[in-house]
Amino acid sequence: MGRGVLSLELSGGLDKGTLYPPLLFNLVANVLSVLLNKAVAKKHIKGVLEDLIPEGITHIQYADDTVIMLDGSENSIRNLKLILYCFEWLIGLKINFHKSEVFVFGAQQEEKERMANMLNCKLGELPLKYLGIPVE
Questions:
Q1: In angstroms, rounded to a whole number, what is the distance separating the alpha carbons of residues 68 and 61?
Q2: What is the 3-state secondary structure (H, E, C) of the chain?
Q3: Quick count: other Cβ atoms within 10 Å of Cβ 80?
Q4: Mind listing the pLDDT tens digit for each residue in 11-23?
Q5: Is this prediction's pTM over 0.85?
Q6: Rounded Cα–Cα distance for residues 72 and 23 (Å)
Q7: For a designed S-S bond to 2, which of 29, 40, 63, 104 qualifies (C-beta 3.0 to 4.6 A apart)?
Q8: Cis omega before residue 22 (within 30°)?
Q9: Distance between CA atoms of 91 and 12, rounded to whole angstroms?
């Protein structure tokens, strides 16, 4: 089973011309972090690197960039999708799944495509760019 990485693109009604949007976005992004942490604690989703870090790593966030990392199981993907829909509903922002990408490591192409389809995202290609820096 492959490991999945989802790079999310959020869009919504924050005016980018003022000082407040970065602060507001940080508050909003924190809500997603709390939801993901609770899902891990309740075993609804499973992160990566569980053998190195207790409960693994499920996400990293910086400014308006969010990367979510899962074990790639169907259960984790399904629950993540539900969490993301709940997040959209709670916050009023939309996740632009057409701009978001899924990167899958250690799986056959068919499995990679299945995971991307489950999340309604396109399958990304390496190098993955995080904060403008290519990561392979």
A1: 9
A2: CCEEEEEECEECCCCCCCCHHHHHHHHHHHHHHHHHHHHHHCCCCCCECCCCCCCCECEEEECCEEEEEECCCHHHHHHHHHHHHHHHHHHCCEECCCCCEEEEECCCHHHHHHHHHHCCCEECCCCEEECCEEEC
A3: 23
A4: 444 445 555 566 6
A5: no
A6: 32
A7: 104
A8: no
A9: 10
Phi and psi based region of residue 10 (left: phi greater than 0; alpha: psi -120 to 50; beta: remaining): beta
Backbone angles phi, psi at 121, to 5 degrees: -120, 165
Name residue 95's amino acid.
Answer: I
| Token pair in block for residue 105 | 């490591």
pLDDT digit string, tens, across residues 19-35: 556 666 677 778 888 99
Determine the pLDDT at residue 22.
Answer: 63
**C-alpha distances out from residue 60 to 19, 33, 89, 111, 117, Å:** 23, 9, 22, 24, 22
Per-residue b or e along 31-42, where b marks 16 or more CB atoms closer than 10 Å to that residue's CB: ebeebbeebbee
Cα–Cα distance measured from residue 29 to residue 63, given in angstroms and rounded to the nearest whole number: 8
